């Protein structure tokens, strides 16, 4: 017997399997989808068995070890990987690795193991009772009395006393596997649907379409509908996957789900430790749970009988992975839904233009929720022109925002302030010569972080201490712009009695930090929450009555055809955090672009009008949903060499795709990252198959070109 094994040896080259001989002592353990340890050149590597061959050849190298007891990639996931690989022009091995948590990846370092805990139990209850009634050894008697109430962990007791009882044959020590995440005992809370939610629920259940777009205003109770739909699936003995876009959303969602579904849930997201992910994945493999809640990669949960896949906040670009393999979890959900004959629910107050267009055309079932769950009013939104505020020397906060913050603090209510930039200052500029401090490795300004006294690059990680002196002329460097750190400092100066929390990448890097910040704010241990866009979606704080958007233009100014859509989404979503309880909410949006339709229409929570405006622009410029987009990104260390190779690729593509629009090569929005220069070629197309074939030809042509690195991104979330 021989097997074909897929090994990760070079992520930039096409996949290649290697054939190995299977020794007799391992034959019974061999099956497709398992990991094996194999010799490769002078090292030992792990790989996935993709094929079992009947023939034999003892001249081949032999498998060293079979790692898994059961196949970790079932037949469906193996086929799914091949489809994703073809659709996204990436390596098959990279897709299989992306499907699995770290402890299950084929890796030289996959040494995660089960956690075992030492327990004690009574050997003979009658003997124990007799000892308790006659012995004067108080410590031993206390341990026996404890164990009569049930087995206990060894660590709770004195080792010396325990050993004495073991020697007397009264108790025994044994090991029990335990999961690293321990479920707390929760009071079951079954949420009942209101009349509008019931109507939406029934429409989804009765729909004959495979894909449903649930378009509900913020606070309309989409989560309650999700749970009711999962209840129906569980009654049929099927399984459910629930995807959320941000780690920050998982604590609240998981808490609500566990109150409703008890312990029938596995959690998968990047905020877990390697061991916790390993445990959660095993719960699924062992069929101990029927619901998975998690971020993007949870779409690959190894369920075998899926009844529903729910994608909450489907407009979020976090569902698209921004590095190889560049899969889109929503497209993966569609593929899995089709395989399992399961419904896919897309939920959002601000769906993507593409999703809403498909729903209006009838490709998806469109279900609307136009009222908040508790009949609360949508917040009042005021737009403040910051060009006028600058004349009053108000650079960060408008007079209106400050007055409203003071009012809410006096009323013991809570405030959320959104500034979609982290750090203290956006960049540093010399007051003498105008020189801007840039990263030496990237085409981007360094951001000043006051807490560490460092200037940092948010792309390559370069950092240097802030000396405040211009490297060009020795002039003084002035801090320009502002981020979350600066906003927090100014708020503390203006409102010294107010308690603040900051939520951005810098404050949430430690395990459990998202949950800790959310819980503190929910329990009113702080009055003001300052953060980036991670605080904008899905979070529910009953006491928040004011939301302030410090600068609504951060996304609007990006060179991205989706910038208006992303701006509208962000403003609508963060506005939805205000007034979710019985108090009326207010939102103050500060902007230098008061005439922009995305900003203006967010004021009236009018998604339909925004869609009508945006779809006209998309049609005129031939952008999705009127076309598909493919991006070819060419990178190299030498500028001239890279642009020359980019021109060759663009010419080849133009000659092959005469009916499609090919743009570029142009300098990437970030022309240099980590000393690599980047150029982009954009293809707007309708013919999927033809474009895929041409891109595969390009991939083959550049495969052995060591001068450049070429990446492909099908339907990128931004460029």
Count of DSSP-assigned helices: 20
**CATH-assigned homologous superfamily of the largest domain:** P-loop containing nucleotide triphosphate hydrolases
Radius of gyration: 29 Å
- Strand adjacency order, main sheet: 11-12-10-13-14-9-15
Q: In the CATH hierarchy, what is the architecture of the largest domain at level 2?
A: 3-Layer(aba) Sandwich
In terms of quaternary structure, what is this? single chain
Query: pLDDT average, as an integer?
Result: 92
N→C terminal distance? 49 Å
Stated plainly, the CATH topology of the largest domain is called Rossmann fold
Largest sheet: number of strands, sense, barrel closure: 7 strands, parallel
Which term fits the overall shape? Answer: globular
Total count of strands: 30
CATH class of the largest domain: Alpha Beta
Amount of beta strand: 15-25%
Class based on secondary structure composition and strand pairing? alpha/beta
Number of discrete domains: 5
* Low-confidence parts: none
Q: How much helical structure, as a percent, in the residues?
A: 25-40%
């Amino acid at each position: 017997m021989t097997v074909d094994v897929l090994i990760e040896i070079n992520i930039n080259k096409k996949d290649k399997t290697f054939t190995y001989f299977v020794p007799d002592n391992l034959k019974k353990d061999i099956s497709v989808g398992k990991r094996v340890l194999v010799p490769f050149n002078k090292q030992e590597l792990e790989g996935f068995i993709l094929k079992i061959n009947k023939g034999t050849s003892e001249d081949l190298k032999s498998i060293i070890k079979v790692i898994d007891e059961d196949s970790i990639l079932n037949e469906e996931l193996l086929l799914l990987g091949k489809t994703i690989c073809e659709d996204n022009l990436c390596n098959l091995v990279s897709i299989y690795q992306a499907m699995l948590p770290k402890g299950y990846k084929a890796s030289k370092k996959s040494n995660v193991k089960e956690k075992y805990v030492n327990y004690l139990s009574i050997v003979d209850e009658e003997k124990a009772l007799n000892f308790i009634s006659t012995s004067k050894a108080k410590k031993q008697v206390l341990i026996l009395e404890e164990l009569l109430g049930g087995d206990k962990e060894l660590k709770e007791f004195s080792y010396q006393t325990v050993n004495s009882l073991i020697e007397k044959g009264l108790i025994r020590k044994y090991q029990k596997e335990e999961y690293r995440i321990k479920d707390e005992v929760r009071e079951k809370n079954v949420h009942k649907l209101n009349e509008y939610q019931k109507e939406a629920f029934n429409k989804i259940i009765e729909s004959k379409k495979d894909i449903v777009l649930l378009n509900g205003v913020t606070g309309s109770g989409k989560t309650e509908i999700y749970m009711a739909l999962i209840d129906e699936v569980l009654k049929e003995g099927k399984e459910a996957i629930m995807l959320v876009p941000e780690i920050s959303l998982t604590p609240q969602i998981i808490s609500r789900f566990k109150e409703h579904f008890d312990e029938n849930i596995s959690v998968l997201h990047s905020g877990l430790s390697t061991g916790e992910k390993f445990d959660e994945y095993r719960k699924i493999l062992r069929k101990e749970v029927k619901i998975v809640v998690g971020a993007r990669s949870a779409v690959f949960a190894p369920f075998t009988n899926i009844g529903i896949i729910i994608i909450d906040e489907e407009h979020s670009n976090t569902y698209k992975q921004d590095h190889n393999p560049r899969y889109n979890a929503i497209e993966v959900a569609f593929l899995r839904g089709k395989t399992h004959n399961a419904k896919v629910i897309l939920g959002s107050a601000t769906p993507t233009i593409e999703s809403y267009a498909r729903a209006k055309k009838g490709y998806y079932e469109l279900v609307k929720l136009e009222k908040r769950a508790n009949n609360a009013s949508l917040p009042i939104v005021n737009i403040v022109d910051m060009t006028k505020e600058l004349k009053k020397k108000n650079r960060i906060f408008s007079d209106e925002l400050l007055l409203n913050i003071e009012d809410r603090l006096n009323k013991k209510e809570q405030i959320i302030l959104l500034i979609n930039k982290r750090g203290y200052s956006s960049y540093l500029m010399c007051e003498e010569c105008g020189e801007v401090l840039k990263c030496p490795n990237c085409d981007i300004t360094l951001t000043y972080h006051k807490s560490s006294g460092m200037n940092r690059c948010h792309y390559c990680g370069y950092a240097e201490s802030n000396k405040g002196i211009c490297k060009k002329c020795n002039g003084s460097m002035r801090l320009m712009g502002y981020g979350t750190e600066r906003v927090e400092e100014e708020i503390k100066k203006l409102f010294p009695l107010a308690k603040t929390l900051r939520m951005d990448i810098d404050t949430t890097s430690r395990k459990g930090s998202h949950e800790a910040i959310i819980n503190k704010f929910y329990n009113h241990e702080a009055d003001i929450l300052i953060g980036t866009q991670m605080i904008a979606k899905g979070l529910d704080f009953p006491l928040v009555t004011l939301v302030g958007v410090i600068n609504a233009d951060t996304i609007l100014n990006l060179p991205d055809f989706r910038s208006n859509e992303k701006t509208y989404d962000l403003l609508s979503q963060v506005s939805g955090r205000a007034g979710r309880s019985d108090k009326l909410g207010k939102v103050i949006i500060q902007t230098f672009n008061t005439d922009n339709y995305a900003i203006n229409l967010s004021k009236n929570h009018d998604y339909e009008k925004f869609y009508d405006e945006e779809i006209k622009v998309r049609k005129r410029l031939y952008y999705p949903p009127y076309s598909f987009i493919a991006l070819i990104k060419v990178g190299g260390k030498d500028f001239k060499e890279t642009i020359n190779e980019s021109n060759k690729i663009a010419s080849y593509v133009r000659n092959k795709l005469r009916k499609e629009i090919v743009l570029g090569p142009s300098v990437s929005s970030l022309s240099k990252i980590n000393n690599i220069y980047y150029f982009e070629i954009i293809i707007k197309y309708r013919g999927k198959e033809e474009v895929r074939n041409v891109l595969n030809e390009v991939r083959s042509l550049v495969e052995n070109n060591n001068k450049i690195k070429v990446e492909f991104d099908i339907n990128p979330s931004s460029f």
